[in-house]
Amino acid sequence: MVHALSARGSLGHHVRTMSGQQISDAAVQERREGLNWAWFGALFASVLRPLAKRGAHPESFYGSMRLLGLDGSQWSLRNTEANTAPPRVRHGNGHSKAQAAFFKWGCAVLVELGTHQPLGAACATLDSVKEQAEISLARQLLESIPQKEDTLLLADRYYGRGAFIAEVQAKAGARCQMLIRVPEPHKARIVEVLSDGSALIEVRVCHAHTPRTQTLLRLREVRGTVWREQSGGRELSASLRLWTTLLDAHAHPAAELLALYAQRWEQELFFRELKRHTAREQLLRAGSPQGAQAEFGAMIIAASLLAEQRLQAATSVGLAPVRLSMVKISRALEALLPVLQVAGNLLEPKQRVQIISRFLAHTAKEARIPPRRSRGCQRGLRKPACAWPRIHTRENLDGSWTYHVIPASFP
Question: What is the CATH number of the domain that holds 276?
Answer without folding.
Answer: 3.90.350
